[in-house]
Structure formats: C-alpha cells, structure tokens
C-alpha cells in the first residue's frame, strides 16, 4: 500500500505541464515543490513511503518502481513470488521445468554477448571506455551494461530510455539481487536527461561509490546524489 503523502519533486520542462493541468502552483524550472502522491507522473523517481503488503513494515521506494503489490525486502519479494507460483500451479515447487528455464536463460545471455546482440547506448559505451569495462557482459541469466571484472563491480546506466517504460519492480529487484549474489557490487547511474557529467566528475562519483562499503549504490546525475540501497541516505559529493 502506498501512503497518502506529499512528495517533494523538482520542476522540469517535462513535468511542468502535467502539474499545471492538475492545478498546482508550479514554480520555476529547477525549483522544488510538493505534490500529492496521487498526482505523480508514473516516471517519478522520488522515494515514496509504502507499507509492505506481505509483512506490514513501512519502507521507501522510488515511485517509478512501484506496482500494484508492494514488497519491502528480498524475503518478501520471494514470499510473494512463491504465493504467485502457488496460486498459479497450486504447488510450491515447480522443480524441473524451472531449472531447465534457468539453463536456457544463461545460454541466451552468453549468446547475446558473443554475437553482440544487446542494444547499447552512446553513453553506455562512453562509460565503458572510461572505466575500462566490458560491455553487456553475461552474468548468469543477465547481460549487465558494464562489468569491471577484476574489481567485481557492475555498472548499470539508466538513461532516458530506461525511464520511458515503467519498470517491473520485482523483475528489477531480482536482477539486482542476482548480480549482488554472484559476488558483484552494483553501481547504478541514473540520468533522466541522458546527459553525463564531464569525465573527471564521472570518475570522482564512481570512485566514491566503489569504495563505499555497500553492495548497491545509486548515483543520480541530475542531483549529483549518491544513495545507498539499505539506508536510502543521500550524500552530495561534488
Ligand atoms: Zn515486507
């Protein structure tokens, strides 16, 4: 469940019209204002307060990641998954067919990498060169944007295209957890406007993230904010 709440958002040329139409007193571009959670655009990346539909705990999540069912943690996502499978197949373990699927997915990820079949953006390529990474590297079922194999780090870049479709929250969490469980640290770079900072600032941000003792670190390029997955505390470092 999403709590009824006011969310602080930043005015930009894209959201201005939407909130004006909703009757808000919209400030100048770049300035912050409060809107009701019911009026938010689906692509909004601000954190909103929710109640877990599985365990009842309060938690925060980015609005754009939310779906009809709200699960707070890996365990609750897993529980939800099992309940869904149970309802669908009326059994808890779908056993062999699931295992076969995993093999198929892994094979597909390898093929995609070897044959260069994954779509790559200009910024993704640039970041990859900047950090001496490998593009679309297969880790189990997934092709990650950039892998720094020696450092066991995965960098995912979410540009404009990423925010245009509303993401499947559980799918996205599963992907992140899978990568982390394979022993990688995940650094997610988000840029809604699809603009990178200059190379030295990018290196500064990513280096800062690399040495944070956290498994998942989010970097927001618009606000130059760094967020840790577990605490959702933000830190400005530029
Ligand atoms: Zn929960």
Description of the molecule:
The structure is a single chain. With about 240 residues, the chain is an alpha+beta fold. It has two domains: about 5-70, no CATH class; about 95-235, 3-Layer(aba) Sandwich (Endonuclease, Chain A), CATH 3.40.960. The chain is built from seven helices and eleven strands. The chain has helices spanning about 15-20, 75-90, 95-115, 120-130, 160-165, 170-180, 200-210, and strands at about 5-10, 30-35, 45-50, 60, 135-140, 140-150, 155-160, 185-190, 215-220, 225-230, 235. A seven-stranded mixed sheet has the order 5-6-7-8-9-10-11, with helices on both faces. A hairpin with a 4-residue loop joins strand 6 (about 140-150) and strand 7 (about 155-160). The chain is globular and about 50 Å long. The two termini are about 35 Å apart. The relative contact order is 0.09. Zinc ion binds near residues 54, 55, 57, 71 and 73.
Rounded to an integer in angstroms, the radius of gyration calculated over CA atoms is: 19 Å
Low-confidence stretches: none
Helix/strand class: alpha+beta
User: Helical region count?
Assistant: 7
CATH class of the largest domain: Alpha Beta
Fourth-level CATH superfamily of the largest domain: VSR Endonuclease
How many domains?
2
Q: What's the overall average pLDDT, rounded?
A: 83
H/E series, N to C? Answer: EHEEEHHHEEEHHEHEEE
Taking the sheet with the most strands, its summary is: 7 strands, mixed
Question: What fold name goes in the CATH topology slot of the largest domain?
Answer: Endonuclease, Chain A
Strand order of the largest sheet: 5-6-7-8-9-10-11
Terminal Cα separation, in Å?
A: 36 Å
Strand content: 15-25%
């Amino acid at each position: 469940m999403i709590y009824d709440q006011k969310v602080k958002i930043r005015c930009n040329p894209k959201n201005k019209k939407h909130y004006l139409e909703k009757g808000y007193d919209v400030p100048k571009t770049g300035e912050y204002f409060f809107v009701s959670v019911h009026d938010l655009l689906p692509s909004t990346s601000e954190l909103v307060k929710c109640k877990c539909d599985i365990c009842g705990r309060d938690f925060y999540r980015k609005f754009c990641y939310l779906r009809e069912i709200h699960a707070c943690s890996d365990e609750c996502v897993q529980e939800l998954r099992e309940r869904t499978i149970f309802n669908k197949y009326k059994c808890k373990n779908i056993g062999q067919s699931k295992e076969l699927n995993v093999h198929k997915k892994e094979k597909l990820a390898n093929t995609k990498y070897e044959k260069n079949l994954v779509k790559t953006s200009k910024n993704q390529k640039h970041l990859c060169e900047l950090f001496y990474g490998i593009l679309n590297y297969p880790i189990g079922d997934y092709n990650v944007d950039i892998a720094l194999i020696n450092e066991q780090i995965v960098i995912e870049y979410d540009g404009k295209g990423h925010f245009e479709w509303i993401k499947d929250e559980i799918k996205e969490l599963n992907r992140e957890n899978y990568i982390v469980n394979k022993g990688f640290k995940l650094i997610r770079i988000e840029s809604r406007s699809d603009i990178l900072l200059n190379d030295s600032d990018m290196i500064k941000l990513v280096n800062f993230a690399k040495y944070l003792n956290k498994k998942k670190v989010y970097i927001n390029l618009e606000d130059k904010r760094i967020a840790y997955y577990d605490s959702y505390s933000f830190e400005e470092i530029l």
